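step 4 of 6: structure.
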Amino acid sequence: MSFSSAGYQLLPVLPELVLAVGAMALLMLGAYRGEGTTRLVTTLAVVLLVVTGALELMLPAGKLTTFGGSFVVDDFARFLKVLAIIGSAATLILSTEFLSDPSRRIFEYSILVLLSTLGMMVLISAADLIMLYLGLELMSLALYVVAASNRDNAKSTEAGLKYFVLGALSSGMLLYGASLIYGFTGTVDFAGIAAAVKSGSVGIVFGIVFLLAGLCFKVSAVPFHMWTPDVYEGAPTPVTAFFASAPKVAALAVFTRVTLTAFPGIVPQWQQILVFVAIASMALGSFAAIGQKNIKRLMAYSSIGHMGFALVGLASGTVEGAQGVLIYIAIYVAMTLGSFAVILTMKRNGQPVEQISDFAGLSRTNPMLAFFFAMLLFSLAGIPPLAGFFAKWYVFVAAIKAGLFTLAVIGVLTSVVGAFYYLTIVKLMYFDEPAGQIEPMRIELRTVLAVAGIFNIFFFVYPGPLVSVATAAAKSLF
Amino acid sequence: MILPALFFYLFAGVCVASAVMVIVSRNPVHSVLFLILAFVNASGLFILMGAEFLGMMLIVVYVGAVAVLFLFVIMMLDVDFVELREGFIEYLPIGLVIGGIFVVELLLVVFSWVINPSTAKQITAAIPANVSNTEALGLVLYTKYIHYFQIAGMVLLVAMIGAIVLTLRHKAKVKRQDINVQNARTPELAMAVRKVASGQGLQDSDAAEWVK
């Protein structure tokens, strides 16, 4: 058997190695020192994520591949990995209070978040179907556990179980699609698949449908969104913040990489799937959110809608489209983390309150918080000059340039519908009678909210860096 | 050439028969035992085909772990299987329809199966000549596919942590074994010699001290 170690350098996976070894070291620390170390383990986990992100940025520029081409580090991977790491680190920071409760001092929470992040990084860099599947499973398995981490709460357990069963089903579909694609092309390598697929035979299209169904589940796009509201509502709020940020980045990354690098020869075939999924997600995200009373369920429908908008960019199948997706997901992560910092602050008498009516009169009891939340909601609705407007602008421009006029028009219309429920909350906060005092905001929540809010409000002043990095990242795929 | 054919029909026949027995036997424990028989025979079929690694894996994983797990579940949980089967006649028509569709599909696959000739050329790791397939797997699993192997290991680590996080409960009253404490025990710690005055016995307070 001929095997040479050429093409198996470890430098491109250095950040992943550091993260994996670090996570295992922290696991040992926690296991030997007991549950009193939760705080220490969480702090070290954040440090480890920062180090990993820094290492990722310090890797030599250009496109690096290793493990026989199945692992690739290009500008696209760097951009999204750093974004996923930011999402995970912010989640850990937002979880400090959740973990300080004596009944839930589980140090494994941070370890699972770290290992899930490792899965995301593998997923973002995956350049063949096996790597994709392993990354996806590593990411998801840790997510199932953290969803049920509040195990004395029936809703949290239900969320974990529901997510696990449906996730296993979607993994099955994804694997079925992957095996069909392997069967029809004879390779699992994305570049090899792209070389083999010049025309869309029925078998390949079948495979793509199943593969995309599995991926749609992970980004919670309609019609594979059913788990989202229940899991978002049932899981502990910091976990919901995690679900809404980092895993979405990784899943959207692999969505983009698979469609654009493995199937560039048959764009029309997957374009129609994506157009349908995008329209359905945007419509459901806007209309179903209107009747919601629980803020976490509302955020679930909001994230379904936002994934629909991001997929509009991908559906165009062009460099502009990919760039739009990258800008969209970056701004979406900032808006989501900021909103969840606000939702985590909403506590009365030591109990978290999750009803939308609890936000009434927040502008009088807590003007700064209300202002930032209002700005985030305007941004989520896509009102200029906030960041959310630019996110939508880039994807719609890409769709129009690719000739997808219907898609762009439907997108704009649904975002108008979506604005209704975001503005309802703003109206509640500013024009209704206060529903009572809320507890003072913790310092770590303030920090996350301030960073996210300021990015969101002042993005239009200096959008250059993000846009140019996203452009370089998008170009590295073509 | 007659011997392999005989073994094939033996394994295949027993496999199908025990698969039927899995669904028709009334006692769930018997079902699981027939399931194990089916697995062992399927593994024999794999070995006849020359895929000895798959055959061994089938025994190790399915018989050794999965079937034993089934047995445990059936014995531990009080599942009333007679009750579960109540709707059998009601669901029979739809079951027959689905079964019929499967048969048609199977026939279509069997009679129209063509392997794309270009597929064979694109095989990334061809089976090398003159080695058994266990060896061939071993040659690539820890070299060419080491990264898949390692990431699969991380997935299993997450599964293990998850199982512990979700089920381990530290109960206050559970006495745990501490080997260091046991080894450090001396006769002075473990025993107390008391002079007992005749007709009086020990006081409760003495007993309490001794228990400690």
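step 5 of 6: annotate
 - Chain B has a mean pLDDT of 83.
 - Residues 52 and 117 of chain B are 26 Å apart (CA to CA).
step 6 of 6: archive
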